[in-house]
Specification:
Active site: 89, 341, 371
Structural class: alpha/beta
Largest sheet: 10 strands, mixed
Distance between the termini: 18 Å
Keywords: Acyltransferase, Transferase
GO molecular function: acyltransferase activity, transferring groups other than amino-acyl groups
Number of helices: 13
Order of helices and strands: EEHEHEHEHHHHHEHEHEHHHEE
Protein name: Acetyl-CoA acetyltransferase
Helix content: 25-40%
Domain Thiolase N-terminal: 5-255
C-alpha cells in the first residue's frame, strides 16, 4: 500500500473562552492556519486536491462547510474543494485519517486536514439545540428513536455521566483526578516556559501562547470546588476547558514528495477507529488502543510519546490503568484540562503537538487517541522520519 506522509503541521494558540480569539470569525480562524500551513510548506496551493476539516455544531458562522469557507477566506485557489466532517471530539483526527486514506488509496496526492472551533461564539450543543427549537423539533438525537429506545431504553446520555461512570468502574477517586489535573497544568506551564510550543504555533490577534494553563491553581483550590452533580466525583477542575482554536496538517503521497521537493517529517504508520458503549461513552480509547496495537503487532512500550485527549481526568487515568503506559510519556506537555479543548480542532492540535514532541525528543513512534461522542475513539500511530 502507498504511504502517507505528514510534511507540515501548524496550529493557532488555544484561546480561553472569552479570551483573545473569542471575537475571531471561525472561517478566519481556520483561514489563519491554512495560510500559515501553505506558507510553511512552500507548496503551490493549487496543487492541493482537497481540504478536510473537523467541526462540531456547524451552525451560524461555522455553517456552510467551514473547510471550504476557511480556504476561501484565506484567499486560496477556489478550484480546491473542501469538506467538513463530524466524529464529535475526534473530528479533526478523523479528518487526518480521511486525508491519509485518500493519499494511501492513490486517489489524491496532497490533502490538507485540520479543524476549527470557536466555542466562545458557539457553545457546545447549545447552538444546534437552538436551531432545532426554531424548527419546532423537540426530540434530540436519542429521544424518540424506537430503535434506540429498544436497545438502550431511557438511559441518560451525557458526557458527564460517562465520566462519572468511568471514575466509578475503574475506582478512580476525586483526589486521583485532581492530582492528575494539577500535573496537566504543571506540564503545560513548563512546556510554555521552555518554548516547546513555539514552532507549532502561528500567533493570532496578539495571542502567541495557549491561554488555558492556570499558574495560580493548586490542589487546595481544586478541593474546594463543588462537584458537577450531587454525590459525584467530578468538578470543573478535572474537565477540559471550553476553548477556541484551529490546526492544520499537510498530508502528501510519495509522488507529491518527489514532485514538490518536500521533506516528510512523519509517516502515518496506522489509523483506525472503534466503538464501545455509547452510554459510558468516553471509555472507547481503551479497546481502540488495544485494537490498534494488535493490528500493528506493537506494544504500548514502543510508543515514545502519547497524546490522549483529556476530556475528563478519568478518561486518561482509566486508559493508563488498562494499557500500563508510562505516565511520563503520556501528554508530556499537558493536555486539554490545562491547554483547552476546542472540539473540532483538538484532534489536529494533538497531532501537531505529537509530531513536534517526537521531533523535540528524537522519539520514533507516537500514538494519539481520544474519546468521542457516541462511544467512539480514533487511534493514529505516527513514525517520525
Amino acid at each position: 500500500m502507498a504511504e502517507a506522509y505528514i510534511v507540515e503541521a501548524v496550529r493557532a494558540p488555544v484561546g480561553r473562552r472569552g479570551g483573545g480569539l473569542s471575537g475571531v470569525h471561525p472561517a478566519d480562524l481556520g483561514a489563519h492556519v491554512l495560510t500559515e500551513l501553505m506558507s510553511r510548506s512552500g507548496v503551490d496551493p493549487a496543487a492541493v486536491d482537497d481540504v478536510v476539516f473537523g467541526c462540531l455544531d456547524a451552525v451560524g458562522p461555522q455553517a456552510g462547510d467551514i473547510a471550504r469557507t476557511s480556504w476561501l477566506a484565506a484567499g486560496l485557489p477556489q478550484e480546491v474543494p473542501g469538506v467538513t466532517v463530524d466524529r464529535q471530539c475526534g473530528s479533526s483526527q478523523q479528518a487526518v485519517h480521511f486525508a491519509a486514506q485518500a493519499v494511501m488509496s492513490g486517489t489524491s496526492d496532497l490533502v490538507v486536514a485540520g479543524g476549527v472551533q470557536n466555542m466562545s461564539q458557539i457553545p457546545i450543543a447549545f447552538a444546534s439545540r437552538g436551531a432545532a427549537d426554531s424548527l419546532g423539533l423537540t426530540e434530540g438525537p436519542f429521544a424518540g428513536s424506537r430503535g434506540w429506545q429498544a436497545r438502550y431504553g431511557g438511559q441518560d446520555v451525557s458526557q458527564f455521566r460517562g465520566a462519572e461512570m468511568i471514575a466509578r468502574d475503574w475506582e478512580i477517586s476525586r483526589e486521583d483526578m485532581e492530582v492528575f489535573a494539577y500535573e496537566s497544568h504543571r506540564r503545560a506551564i513548563l512546556a510554555i516556559d521552555e518554548g516547546r510550543f513555539e514552532r507549532e504555533i502561528a500567533p493570532l490577534e496578539g495571542v502567541s501562547a495557549d491561554e488555558g494553563p492556570r499558574r495560580d491553581t493548586s490542589l487546595a483550590k481544586m478541593a474546594g470546588l463543588r462537584t458537577l452533580e450531587e454525590g459525584g466525583r467530578l468538578t470543573a477542575a478535572v474537565a477540559s476547558q471550553i476553548s477556541d482554536g484551529a490546526a492544520a496538517l499537510l498530508i502528501a503521497s510519495e509522488e507529491a514528495v518527489r514532485t514538490h521537493g518536500l521533506r516528510p517529517r512523519a509517516r502515518v504508520h496506522h489509523l483506525s477507529a472503534r466503538g464501545e458503549d455509547p452510554i459510558r461513552m468516553l471509555s472507547a480509547p481503551i479497546p481502540a488502543t488495544a485494537h490498534a496495537l494488535k493490528k500493528t503487532g506493537m506494544s504500548i512500550g514502543d510508543m515514545d510519546a502519547v497524546e490522549i485527549n483529556e476530556a475528563f481526568a478519568p478518561v486518561v487515568l482509566a486508559w493508563l490503568k488498562e494499557t500500563g503506559a508510562d505516565p511520563a510519556r503520556v501528554n508530556p506537555n499537558g493536555g486539554a484540562i490545562a491547554l483547552g479543548h476546542p472540539l473540532g480542532a483538538t484532534g489536529a492540535r494533538l497531532m501537531t503537538t505529537l509530531l513536534h514532541e517526537l521531533e523535540r525528543t528524537g522519539g520514533r513512534y507516537g500514538l494519539q487517541t481520544m474519546c468521542e461522542g457516541g462511544g467512539q475513539a480514533n487511534v493514529t500511530i505516527l513514525e517520525r522520519l
